[in-house]
Each structure stands twice: as C-alpha cells, then as structure tokens.
Amino acid sequence: MQYFNIKNTDLSISSLALGTWVFGGDCWGGVKEQDCIDTVSAAIDLGINLIDTAPIYGYGASESIVGKAIKGRRDKVVIATKCGLIGIGAHIKHNLDPESIRTEIEESLKRLKIDFIDIYQCHWPDQNTPIEETLGFLCKLQQEGKIKYIGVSNFDDKLLQRACDFTKIVTLQNQYSLLEREIEDKVLPVCRDLNVGVLTYGPLTGGILSGKYKTEPNFKPGDSRSFFYKCYKGEEFNKTKKKIDELEKFKRPLNQLAVNWVRQQAGIASVITGARNQEQIIQNAKAFEWYLSDEELMEISQVTK
Ligand SMILES: NC(=O)c1ccc[n+]([C@@H]2O[C@H](COP(=O)([O-])OP(=O)(O)OC[C@H]3O[C@@H](n4cnc5c(N)ncnc54)[C@H](OP(=O)(O)O)[C@@H]3O)[C@@H](O)[C@H]2O)c1
C-alpha cells in the first residue's frame, strides 16, 4: 500500500480507502453484517487505514458496523465520517446547522464507539447555513477534542476557497472517475494550490467500471444505482458500455485500471472504493501492484473525455 501525507498535518492516509456506503444495506441491495466486518478486517490487513462512512448510510447502520469492525484496532485506522445529511423518511435534507451537527456527532461517536473522529466532513453544502457558521462550530468540536481535522465533500471551487479562508480544511471528498471528470477543471487545481488532500469517491461509478454489466441492469427504485449514479439507465448505459468496451482493449483488469487512472492523477490523496466483501477490496487493492504508463494514461483519458 502507498500512503499520502496531507501537508501541515500528522495525517498519513492510505492511497486506497475503504468506502462503506454499501454497509448501509438499503441502497445497495442488502449486505450481511459479517461480510462487512470481514471486509474491514481484510482492508486493514492490506494496509488500508482510511475508512469512510456517514450517518446517512443506512441511517446509522454503516457507522455501527464500522464501530464493531474496528474494535481493538482503533490505532490502525483513520476514521472519516460526515455530517449534514438528515434522513426524514425517504426524503434527505441538507442541514449544516450547529445544533443539528451537535446531535449528529454525539450519535456518530456512540455508533462508532470511539472518542474522536479523525476527519469530520461536511457531506454536502447547505444553502440555508452560512459555511462560516458551520465551520465555527466544527472548530469548537476540535477544541472539545471530538474531531481532529475538518474535511468537506461535494464542494465546488468557490465554496472550498471560502471554507479555506475561514479555517484549515484538510480534505475535499468529491466524485471522480473515468466516467465523472467534472472536478478536473476548477476543483482539482484549487485543491493543489491550497494543499487540500483530494479524496475521490465512486472510482468504479458504483461498480459499472468493473465491467460486470454486459446488459442494462435493473435496480430497484431507491438503489443508489437508480438515483445517484446516472450511467445505469437507457441511453446513458449504452454510451457507457461503448466506453467500457474501448477500455477493455487495454487488456488490464478493468476495476484496477479504473482505480489506477484516478490515483495516478496529480493531487489525489486517496481513492475511496466501496466493497461489499473481502474479495472486492482485495481485487481493488491489486491496482497498487502496478502502474499505468504515461502513454496509457493519456490514451485512456481520451476514451472518456
Ligand atoms: N461524499 C459523498 O457524497 C459520497 C458519495 C458516494 C460515495 N461516497 C463514498 O465513497 C465510497 C465509494 O463510492 P461507491 O461505493 O459509491 O462507489 P464505487 O466504489 O465506485 O463502487 C462500489 C461498488 O462497486 C462494486 N464493486 C466494488 N469492487 C468491485 C470489484 N472488484 N469487482 C466488481 N464489483 C465491485 C460493489 O457493488 P456491487 O457488489 O453491488 O456491484 C461496490 O459496492 C462510498 O462507499 C462512500 O464511502 C461518498
């Protein structure tokens, strides 16, 4: 495994991180708790230290499972969780109001069974709360020792700059993959300028970049691949399939090619890949046994530009 030191911090995070949205179960067709616990174990054994979760993943289920899985191994992991998405029935509200965050963090700490969170991230922007108000409260949580570092997620370049003007933001977590390259133009350069470590999510765009869908899949409503990732339906699926057919010509395991393409871009601190079982995280970590050449990187970039 490789590690990335985030500038001006004592954070050394693995360049592959374990994402645990799938542990929530509800949006990913269900999971078995023991499989999730074994996945965390396998990840730690592979040298992966960064584990990303959120209260909204399965309405607390993901954090609870992570809490059980890291028991006795707290010193081996960097825990990144989030605040600011509140589930109200099937509806999700963005809320970065300090009072709401106070409730969220106390519950996260209980579920994770830890005393402090290493990286506490604003999950999505909240139009109703000035970011300075949120960050002022997160600084207070730092002083209380409940969180060590502050991160943000799904922020654009302007909001990130505004956040960095207020306090130290160590990481930005946004979607980035061969199929979703929006952050390249503005967000990545700002992160490089401001020494913000980039954590990228969705390297397989929910699994499609493993190459396993030969025909259009049919996910239930409410499954993340029906509402969050847009490449699984109709014309979008057909367009994506054509790109995947091109990528397969590189004769590399597709999941590893997709992980390597992201991790080899400048400024990427860690690639967060979701895994529902040990085998998936082991397969994704194999990407770290080799590199794409500069020529391959350029050619692959052209396929999905
Ligand atoms: N900040 C945010 O707003 C945000 C948003 C999304 C995700 N995230 C974080 O980023 C993490 C990663 O994103 P993600 O889980 O959505 O997407 P992803 O990593 O692109 O895809 C993960 C899914 O792909 C499939 N998969 C993984 N490895 C595979 C392999 N080797 N072969 C075949 N299939 C494989 C699994 O689903 P199946 O087994 O069902 O196919 C797995 O759940 C999340 O878990 C979460 O921690 C954050």
Task: Describe the SSE topology.
Layout: E1 3-5, E2 12-14, E3 16-19, H1 33-45, E4 50-52, H2 61-69, E5 78-83, E6 85-88, E7 91-94, H3 98-112, E8 117-122, H4 131-143, E9 147-153, H5 157-166, E10 171-175, H6 187-194, E11 197-201, H7 224-227, H8 234-248, H9 254-263, E12 268-274, H10 278-285, H11 294-304
Parallel strand pairs: 3-4, 3-12, 4-5, 5-8, 8-9, 9-10, 10-11, 11-12
Antiparallel strand pairs: 1-2, 6-7
NADP nicotinamide-adenine-dinucleotide phosphate binds at residues 19-22, 28-29, 52, 123, 153-154, 173, 201-207, 210, 212, 255, 272-276, 280, 283-284.
What does this molecule look like?
- With 305 residues, this protein is an alpha/beta fold.
- It has one domain: TIM Barrel.
- Helices cover 38% and strands 19% of the residues.
- Helix 1 packs parallel to helix 10.
- The longest helix is centred in the middle third of the chain and has 15 residues.
What fold name goes in the CATH topology slot? TIM Barrel
> What is the domain tally?
1
Instruction: Give the SSE order as H and E letters.
Output: EEEHEHEEEHEHEHEHEHHHEHH
User: Shape, please?
Assistant: globular
CATH architecture assignment name:
Alpha-Beta Barrel
Outline of the structure:
This protein has 305 residues and is an alpha/beta fold. It has helices spanning 33-45, 61-69, 98-112, 131-143, 157-166, 187-194, 224-227, 234-248, 254-263, 278-285, 294-304; strands at 3-5, 12-14, 16-19, 50-52, 78-83, 85-88, 91-94, 117-122, 147-153, 171-175, 197-201, 268-274. The site of NADP nicotinamide-adenine-dinucleotide phosphate (NAP) has 29 residues, from strand 12 and helix 10.
